[in-house]
Amino acid sequence: MKRAFYRYGIAAITGIGAISVLCLFAHESPWHVVQILLNTSLGEPEDLSVTLFYATHLMFCATGLAVAFQAGLFPIGAEGQLSFACLTTTMVAIMLPPTYFSLVIVLVTGLLASTVLGLIVAYFKCKKGAHEVITSMMLNFIVAAFANYMVSHHFQSHSSQDPETAIIHSRFWLFPSIFHAEGSPANVTFFLAVLACVAAWYFLEKTRPGFEIRAVGKSKSVAQNSGISVERIYVLALGISALLAGFGAWNQILGYAHKYQIGFSADYGFLAIAVALVARNNPLAIIPSSLFFAILLKGATGLDIETDFITRDFVKIIQAVLILMFLVLQKQRDKSRAEAEARRT
Question: Count of domains in the chain?
Fold first, then answer.
């Protein structure tokens, strides 16, 4: 544990040093950039609310991706799964009357929709040998096209010029705001996202299916020889991954916007890949990792206004540098383990 903290510290210090050099090269004070990021993301309750809202999406998507990554898979479909869950949740909420039975259907619909996308990826992986990167990426485009069609041709709001649906009935506004302020996006699904991270950690570390997922990710051939069905694990991991991404519909539709908007996502599903990688696919570590990336995402808006030489795109450079540092750390750790095992044998 101490060695892990030491390595993380080295990676973090190296990353911060590289980012500081880049800030100086851009004629900006590193401390000034840090102040802007923190003040813009945490300075006011409204800013904190948006940051927590971003972190909620990232936790749901990144935790799901971490489960798939631990099985040795690399799907990149969380963005499409989140969007599809939000779309189907909104459509069902618009079409159904506001009854208690409808509440259950609305809660479940988005989760089922996103899970179906994950199972489609699993089917092509197990039965056709298609790589999950390709199939999940193609599904992202299909979902985007389908959402554009459904909104523009069937669910377009008559009171708005923007590509968005009508607002769902207030009976379906199930998750109240944390800050009890009008327009505050952070809602109680933030705590559900934290709980999902804890539950995913327990599932992976303390249950037999979780052990089998990790075993397949470590060595597929060894897992097969031990009697573990690799195809079953792929279906399980991809299904859970998509299911967790679908919970973002609770945050977006039932907790905040109450309508589906084309382009609502700030690339949550793609940014979640970085969140999971920095956390080394540890669901517990995804909590602080999501908060960190949410701070960068929200704080980026201040760089355009309060700096002279850099823009919000500088945050993408910060993200890239940090990811690179942690990937180098992981590579060194894997190399050290391989050398240690070679010495033992």
Answer: 1
